[in-house]
Amino acid sequence: xxxxxxxxxxxxxxxxxxxxxxxxxxxxxxxxxxxxxxxxxxxxxxxxxxxxxxxxxxxxxxxxxxxxxxxxxxxxxxxxxxxxxxxxxxxxxxxxxxxxxxxxxxxxxxxxxxxxxxxxxxxxxxxxxxxxxxxxxxxxxxxxxxxxxxxxxxxxxxxxxxxxxxxxxxxxxxxxxxxxxxxxxxxxxxxxxxxxxxxxxxxxxxxxxxxxxxxxxxxxxxxxxxxxxxxxxxxxxxxxxxxxxxxxxxxxxxxxxxxxxxxxxxxxxxxxxxxxxxxxxxxxxxx
Length: 287
Fold this sequence. Notes:
Layout: H1 3-10, H2 12-22, H3 28-33, E1 39-46, E2 50-51, H4 55-63, E3 70-73, E4 80-81, E5 86-93, H5 94-124, E6 131-133, H6 143-152, E7 166-168, H7 170-176, H8 179-189, E8 196-200, H9 203-212, E9 216-220, H10 224-234, E10 239-243, E11 261-263, H11 266-269, E12 276-283
Parallel strand pairs: 6-11, 7-8, 8-9, 9-10, 10-11
Antiparallel strand pairs: 1-5, 1-12, 2-4, 3-5
């Protein structure tokens, strides 16, 4: 299933909820100046350089109000765009264009900001063999869009939600009484097809996780020296993930650790928007 197909299947309810948040009765401003149907066109323009992500979501915000709205894109998700570039045109009922404009832009700007931040961090890891993935530190009800944006920017996804995989963090380990006990409990409960990951903070916990047969071992907020020791200790018996305050400012130094994956919450929770604007709304007859 393609990313665009998954968005079509799962996103409508969330986009509709965002539209309903913005219009609880009528769009008073638009109804004041456009009491009747009038066909028009507006331009989607980039106001800064970055990676675009979320064009199908942008289009859907208009089309949920009027299925006849035409969105013609001149770029594709994953493309790098430049300041001032014309990205798309939106043509249809001008009342629909005005009413859905902010919701459509909110999705597209947020998703493009995440894709841009992800692409920047991936470029810093290019050639290292270390794969960048996201976390569950996403905006509530925006996860499907934000994880799509990470993939569009060249990153990968960690588990989508709590049902996807076992990740035994410090509090799980504390509740179980130790790393070994937590892994054994997970093996007994989870389906045999599901991988088990253990978060470790010390080399002693790494050794326990290896002996317990963890599939993935996360090195959480360890020093570079300890992470290198941990990789040597694991010796290929589990996938190794680095985690903990990973940002664009410090990710490059992790390339030489020898891990398989680095996860970063910053690419979703701290990404800015990509500045975009819907401008030049005019009657379609002028085309």
